[in-house]
Specification:
Layout: E1 5-7, E2 16-26, E3 30-37, E4 44-51, H1 54-65, E5 69-76, H2 83-90, E6 94-98, H3 114-127, H4 138-170, H5 183-191, H6 197-227, H7 234-240, H8 248-258, H9 267-273, E7 278-280, E8 289-292, H10 298-307, H11 319-325, H12 330-352, H13 357-377, H14 386-389
Helix pairs in contact: 4-6, 4-8, 7-8, 8-10, 9-13, 10-13, 12-13
């Protein structure tokens, strides 16, 4: 078997390093590990199946690495999150997480198994065909989870209200007031008397469900108000709040989803990441554009569309917006005004052309992305988290041995350690 050997940089080290590229097909309970050794002519094989527990994974990597090996690990992003990535980086192992949609796939393939997926990842990683995604810091990810929990609660509240309205409509009741869910509407619902006991019970259950969802949304918003000002990305949130349509919740959602906007060299890259660019199927001199790709971050795309709902109003610095802009640099306020004027002009231009309302909102959201990109690039670079400020060096010694394996069937035998948890001797180099 031919193996690529690279001389070490230390003259006193007489050994040669063997580079091994690992593809991991990670699942909830187990992972398949494939190994591609050396250069293109090196062997590509399946190492086997191991438990997804960190102890079992580290033990397998220690065996694969051997005495003088250098590991390069790749696995696809999925529901297991970034716990494995952060642990490997902590141990000094080169690791990337790739997006499944960006992984090259052979055409005509009709067989897909976990073993084949792992082998494909190992081959592509050795060939340099995989691009790692941006992995947020633990604190950044916690704020993102908090904003997504608030969005989930808001959607649950919307569904609960829709269920109540549908129930009443089936019984022949329809509120004819000016605004739904206003104080007058809620008073109407509380004073409504249905003829049968079962219907009264259903009405009360739906009303209580709405109250619980409303309280949940309020609690999560209070947590955001308490947590976001302590976040290292809070200056970016404050800058975004200088734009009309962005208060604390909306600004926190967008910043948590985008994170550092400087990783996008051009606003078109950010537009593509958010799935707001049109799909294209062109050939030769024929160019065909379709609907937007929706291939990116759906949460950020949703909040952008919500933020442009007021674009049909004339540009104005309202009292709440002026309060949010207090103490912010003049450049932020100037860009905020420029954004209002541009979106207002663009809205009426597209509307007079007869463009559908939905397409107008998407076009305005895409325009807004350019202003967001320009604004966030003016924000000073936030302080890097501790894990990023002092990245673990590439390990040149074997992986530290694991502690004694837990007894089979015990709670610790299958436990997944949370990010940032203090682990036993494994966490120390």
């Amino acid at each position: 078997m031919d193996e690529a050997v690279i001389p070490t940089t230390k003259s006193e080290d007489k050994h040669m390093k063997i580079h091994k590229y690992l593809g991991l097909d990670v699942h909830q309970d187990d992972s398949i590990i494939a190994v591609a050794e050396g250069d293109r002519t090196g062997e590509v094989r399946v190492y086997g199946k191991v438990s997804s527990d960190l102890y079992a994974t580290e033990k397998a990597l220690r065996k694969i690495r051997g005495e003088h090996g250098v590991l390069h690990v790749a696995y696809e992003a999925g529901p297991t999150g970034f716990v494995l990535y952060r642990r490997l980086r902590q141990l000094g192992i080169d690791c990337i997480v790739v997006a499944p949609s960006k992984t090259p796939q052979p055409k005509g393939g009709r067989q897909k198994t976990n073993r084949r997926d792992a082998l494909q990842l190992a081959r592509l990683h050795r060939a340099g065909e995989l691009t790692g995604i941006h992995v947020p810091d633990e604190v950044d990810e916690s704020i993102r989870d908090l904003t997504r929990a608030r969005s989930d609660a808001s959607r649950d509240l919307k569904r609960a209200k829709q269920r109540l309205k549908s129930f009443l409509l089936r019984q022949g009741y329809h509120y004819t007031g000016k605004a739904n869910w206003s104080e007058a509407h809620q008073r109407y619902l509380r004073e409504l008397v249905l003829p049968l006991p079962a219907l009264k019970a259903v009405l009360e259950e739906y009303l209580q469900a709405i109250d619980r969802c409303t309280e949940r949304v309020t609690r999560l918003e209070e947590l955001l108000v308490a947590q976001v000002p302590q976040w290292r990305m809070y200056p970016a949130v404050q800058a975004l709040m200088c734009l009309r349509g962005f208060e604390l919740v909306a600004a926190s959602i967008l910043v948590a989803e985008i994170n550092d906007v400087r990783r996008f060299a051009h606003p078109r890259g950010l537009m593509a990441y958010l799935g707001l660019v049109p799909s294209e199927d062109s050939t030769g001199d024929t160019r065909r554009l379709g609907a937007i790709t929706k291939a990116g971050n759906a949460q950020a795309r949703w909040i952008l569309v919500e933020a442009v709902q007021s674009a049909d109003h004339p540009p104005k610095v309202s009292a709440p917006l002026a309060l949010r802009q207090q103490g912010q640099p003049e450049a932020y306020r100037t860009l905020g005004w420029k954004t209002q004027v541009r979106l207002y002009k663009r809205y009426w231009h597209l509307t007079r052309r007869g463009v559908m309302a939905g397409k107008v909102k998407i076009a305005l959201a895409r325009e807004l992305v350019g202003f967001v990109w320009d604004l966030l690039r003016q924000v000073p670079v936030p302080a890097a988290p501790a894990s990023a400020a002092h990245p673990a060096p590439q390990a040149t010694s074997p992986i530290p041995p694991a502690t004694a394996a837990p007894a089979p069937g015990s709670r610790s035998a299958t436990r997944r350690h949370p990010p940032g948890a203090q682990l036993p001797a494994l966490a120390r180099d």
